[in-house]
Write a structure and sequence with these properties.
Elements: E1 7-8, H1 19-31, H2 42-62, E2 69-72, H3 75-90, E3 96-100, H4 105-116, E4 120-124, H5 134-140, E5 145-151, H6 163-173, E6 176-180, E7 199-203, E8 214-218, H7 246-261, H8 263-281, E9 287-289, E10 300-305, H9 310-316, E11 320-321, E12 323-324, H10 337-341, H11 346-350, E13 352-356, H12 363-382, H13 385-399
Parallel strand pairs: 1-11, 3-4, 3-5, 5-6, 6-7
Antiparallel strand pairs: 2-8, 7-8, 9-10, 10-13, 12-13
Helix pairs in contact: 1-7, 2-7, 3-4, 8-12
The chain binds pyridoxal-5'-phosphate.
Length: 400
C-alpha cells in the first residue's frame, strides 16, 4: 500500500514549484542551452536574450531598474553579498553595522564573521511581539554606522517590520539599508520605487520557484558600492562571477511576476484559511500565538502549546508536515533563537511550532489539520504529569 504524503504546512521553509513557473523553466532549459556570455553564435545570443528579458521582468515586478538586479544562488548568497560587499567597500568610512537578534542565520552569521574581523555589530533586541521600534534603531545609529540590515518579514513568526519608516530614517541618516525580503515578497506589497531601500535580498523557492536561485537588488540612484564576493568571468558588472543559469533566472522572474500579480487575492484566501485554523486550534486551552497579533503576514501561525513538546507533537502527527520551534536548526537541539530573542524561555520555545500555509493549501487540508492537532495535543497532555499538576493547581483557583 502506498503511504500517503503528509499535508504540507511548511511553506515558510520552502514552496512547491508552481506549474506555470515549471513550464517556462522547461522551455528555457530545453530550447536555450547556450551560454548567455557566448557572443559569437546564436546559441549564446538566444540565451542572453532570454536572460535579459527575464531580468527586465524581475526588475519590473519589484519596481527596480534592470541594472539593479544581481542574480545569485539564493537569499543566503544575496545576504552575504550585501553584508560583506558593503563591509568591504565602506570599511574606511566606518565599521559599525546594526542588525536584529531575530534575523535569519544568513544575516547573523556573516555579521558574526565580521565581528571577528574587528567590526562592531549591534544586535537590536525586539519586544515580545518581535517588533523593533524606530527610536531603538535611531539610538543605535552612530557616526561609525555604515549599514542597517533588517528582515521585512520573519521566517519563523511571520512578524513584519515597518520597513518604509525604517528606510526613511536610514536614508535621512545617510546609512545604507539592506532588507532580507525572502519572506516578504509574495506576502506583502513590495515596490522598491516607493521606498528608499539600498539593498534587498530575494529567493525563488519561497515564492513557488525552484531552489538555487535568488537575487540582490542593488540601488543605483544613489549608487551603492559593493565588493564582489565571487570572482570569475566578470559577469553581472563584475559583482558576481559565474555563468548565468538561464532556466533558473527565467523561472524566478516568472515566480516574481505571479507573486506580485496574484498577491491580493492569494493573501485574502490564505487569511481565511489561517483564521479558520486558528479558530479550530484555539478551542484548546493554554494555546498561545507567538508574535505580534496584527503586524504579521497571513501565511503563518507560530503557536505555543503549553505542556506539549514541539518535537513530540511533530512525531505524533506524521500526517502533517510542519516545523517545530527549532525549525532552522534541525540538526541541533537548540531552541529557536527568534523566540528566545523575543523574550520567551527555552521551555516556551520547545513547546512552540510553526505552521505555514501557501498557494496550494486547501480548506479541506486545514480541516484535517485542526482535527489531528486537537486530538494529539489532547492526547499528549493526557499522559503528561506536568499538565495534570497544572490542571490540579488551576482548578481550586477557578472554583472560588
Ligand atoms: C529562506 C530564507 C533565506 C535563505 O534563502 P535561500 O534562498 O534558501 O538561501 C534567507 N532569509 C530568509 C528570511 C528566508 O526565509
Amino acid at each position: 500500500m502506498a503511504v500517503e504524503k503528509p499535508i504540507y504546512l511548511d511553506n515558510m521553509a520552502t514552496t512547491e514549484v508552481d506549474p506555470r513557473v515549471l513550464e517556462k523553466m522547461l522551455v528555457a532549459m530545453t530550447s536555450c542551452y547556450g551560454n548567455p556570455s557566448s557572443n559569437s553564435h546564436p546559441y549564446g545570443w538566444d540565451s542572453k536574450e532570454m536572460v535579459d528579458q527575464a531580468t527586465c521582468q524581475a526588475a519590473d515586478a519589484i519596481g527596480a531598474r534592470v541594472e539593479e538586479i544581481i542574480w545569485t544562488s539564493g537569499a543566503t548568497e544575496a545576504n552575504n553579498l550585501a553584508i560583506y560587499g558593503v563591509a568591504g567597500a565602506y570599511k574606511r568610512r566606518g565599521q559599525h553595522i546594526i542588525t536584529c537578534a531575530t534575523e535569519h542565520k544568513a544575516v547573523l552569521e556573516p555579521c558574526q564573521q565580521l565581528e571577528k574581523q574587528g567590526f562592531q555589530i549591534t544586535y537590536l533586541q525586539p519586544d515580545r511581539g518581535g517588533m523593533i521600534s524606530l527610536e531603538q534603531l535611531q539610538q543605535a545609529i552612530t557616526s561609525e554606522t555604515i549599514l542597517v540590515s533588517l528582515m521585512w518579514v520573519n521566517n519563523e513568526t511571520g512578524v513584519m517590520q515597518d520597513i518604509p519608516s525604517i528606510a526613511k530614517l536610514t536614508r535621512q541618516k545617510g546609512v545604507l539599508l539592506h532588507v532580507d525580503a525572502a519572506q516578504a515578497i509574495g506576502k506583502i506589497p513590495v515596490d522598491i520605487s516607493q521606498i528608499p531601500i539600498d539593498l534587498l535580498s530575494l529567493s525563488a523557492h519561497k515564492i513557488y520557484g525552484p531552489k538555487g536561485v535568488g537575487a540582490l537588488f542593488v540601488c543605483r540612484r544613489p549608487r551603492v558600492r559593493l565588493h564582489a564576493q565571487i570572482h570569475g568571468g566578470g559577469q553581472q558588472y563584475g559583482l558576481r562571477g559565474g555563468t548565468l543559469p538561464t532556466q533558473q533566472i527565467v523561472a524566478m522572474a516568472e515566480a516574481l511576476t505571479i507573486a506580485q500579480t496574484d498577491l491580493t487575492d492569494e493573501c485574502q484566501r490564505i487569511e481565511k484559511l489561517r483564521h479558520h485554523l486558528w479558530q479550530g486550534i484555539a478551542q484548546l486551552p493554554e494555546v498561545y500565538l507567538n508574535g505580534h497579533a496584527t503586524e504579521r503576514v497571513p501565511h503563518n501561525l507560530n503557536i505555543c502549546f503549553r505542556f506539549v513538546d514541539g518535537e513530540a507533537l511533530m512525531m505524533a502527527l506524521p500526517e502533517l508536515a510542519f516545523s517545530s520551534g527549532s525549525a532552522c536548526n534541525a540538526m541541533l537541539t537548540e531552541t529557536s533563537h527568534v523566540l528566545r530573542a523575543m523574550g520567551y524561555d527555552d521551555l516556551w520555545a520547545a513547546s512552540s511550532v510553526r505552521i505555514s500555509l501557501g498557494r496550494f493549501t486547501t480548506m479541506a487540508e486545514v480541516d484535517s489539520a485542526i482535527e489531528l492537532i486537537v486530538a494529539q495535543v489532547t492526547r499528549l497532555r493526557g499522559i503528561s504529569p506536568l499538565w495534570e499538576r497544572f490542571c490540579d493547581q488551576e482548578a481550586p483557583a477557578y472554583a472560588i
